[in-house]
From TrEMBL:
<dbReference type="GO" id="GO:0003700">
    <property type="term" value="F:DNA-binding transcription factor activity"/>
</dbReference>
<dbReference type="Pfam" id="PF00104">
    <property type="entry name" value="Hormone_recep"/>
</dbReference>
<dbReference type="InterPro" id="IPR000536">
    <property type="entry name" value="Nucl_hrmn_rcpt_lig-bd"/>
</dbReference>
<keyword id="KW-0675">Receptor</keyword>
<feature type="domain" description="NR LBD">
    <location>
        <begin position="50"/>
        <end position="226"/>
    </location>
</feature>
<keyword id="KW-0805">Transcription regulation</keyword>
<dbReference type="InterPro" id="IPR035500">
    <property type="entry name" value="NHR-like_dom_sf"/>
</dbReference>
<keyword id="KW-0804">Transcription</keyword>
<dbReference type="GO" id="GO:0005634">
    <property type="term" value="C:nucleus"/>
</dbReference>
<protein>
    <recommendedName>
        <fullName>NR LBD domain-containing protein</fullName>
    </recommendedName>
</protein>
Amino acid sequence: FSLLCKTRKSGETATKPDGFLLKRGDFTGKGLQFCPATYAVVVPNARILTSGLFDFGKVTFPDFAALSEENRACCIMSCIQQVAIVDSTYRSLHHFPEDAMKYFASYTTTIDYDSVEKFFEDCPHEINKADAIEALRVNARRTTAMNRHVYERIKPDNVEFLVLLGLSFWNNEVALLNDDLCNATERNRAAILRELNIVYKSRGKDDYASRLGELLCFLDNTENNVSLHAVDVELYRLLNLFNEAF
């Protein structure tokens, strides 16, 4: 995960707006500045995350490295949205605990629900801006209701967050693609849950079924959010948005 974060930090340094004054912390990672997300940087930053997830998968999971190139690509494209939601929810709550209306659109960029208009300021396409703003606001409110509020209530610790990240990488949609990915997904999900079992027992938590249920419930929410996002994509296309990304 540290490798993934470094990849995203380094890559997104190059996508900052021309007028954004970079400081030493933007290169070292200490005192990293966050800037408002805009349309022009969303697609490049998503591509950086995609590239980073390939490296993350190879380093973290031997099964992923052993997959064919085609299956690795299918795995990443099927998990990227859920991984992004889990990561954004975790980091948004960490960096903006008092501002539920602000979340990470990428590793270094944020969206403020009350200032969604700014997101479209550099959109190069002819769009119905009013409809686009409303669509993004609806998406943002739903994401907060489905994910952040639940995450804030159950408060996963760092180990549990990594479990959520791993299970998101090997999610149910990946398992449905073909037999090789189904087998790899089942093996890795089982291995992740075994490791969590060991951690809980080492902490003296013998009865942790309810806690595991809370974590899996959160993941169900993120999966549902991804499904709804697929519907959003069709609306965005009708509004002439993000066609270069899908």
